[in-house]
Amino acid sequence: MTREEKRQRREQIIKDYQDGKTAREISEVYNITQNYVYVICKDYSNAINHKGYADILRQNNKLILKMRDAGKTVKEIADFFNVSIFAVKYYFETNGIKSREYRNTEAEAARRIFEKTNGQFEYVSGYTNKDAPVLVRCKVCGETFERTYHHLTTHCYGCPNCKALAKKQREKEKEIEAKRKRLEKEQLRIEREKVRAEKEAARERARLERLHFCPVCGTETDRPKYCSDQCMKKANNTNGELRRRNLIKTATVDKDITVDGLFRRDNGVCAICGRRCNWEDYTIREGVKVCGDWYPSIDHIKPLARGGLHSWDNIQLAHRRCNSQKGVR
Known about the structure:
three-stranded antiparallel beta sheet, two-stranded antiparallel sheet, 9 strands
């Protein structure tokens, strides 16, 4: 549909509206939506409901044409005469005047692009209409690229080269930040390893300071005195035997006391458990006689460790096992 056909249909719709037809009837006749009928009728009502609009615009017809030729918009003309935009549009349509927007001139397009982009883009060439691509230059990076006029003056999203540079900068900053974090993590790991090594060295120095030789077997050890429980037990037995012998030396000793004499005196009966002792309870291991639990032994009634004497009055016959279990009691 041409512009003239649209104007004629608009006039017919307005005429039907004046004749009292409803928006539904008009929409069914012209096969259009009721909302479109409402918009046309509203524009018409706004244009004719303001007294004096038609006279003002008719009296200044030459001035309006000059302003239109100079590239003034409908809004600028309406603001100049202090009338509504609908009145100016309706005046143009009823009088067959074609409105000329500033977008129809290349100079105004360049100015509009510069204003809408806040001075970031500068028009170069290529403007024909609002949907055709134009060549513009970015004043920040100096890159030239193509965009449609409509895109630049409505929702321009910036220079693609500047976006690419900004993206590269962000990626570079992210890489630098990641590298810094890796270095910090590595430095922290090195410090922890250093602290751990210092602790290990301190523990090793302390262990070396505690090192000494076992008095029993001569092995180097860091235990308090003996290198093992076996050496400690052996040393305790040896020390106990030495103490016993020293006590015997300092006490009153009967030199004629023997196990055979004590066995004959006590008739071979253990004074602790009451059972007979067995002379045959022994074995020979590698040429050494090893006595068993039921072999006879000399037991001091009052132990030597508690001040007892090694005399006939203070001894009694006992199994080796019973004597060991009695101890110094």
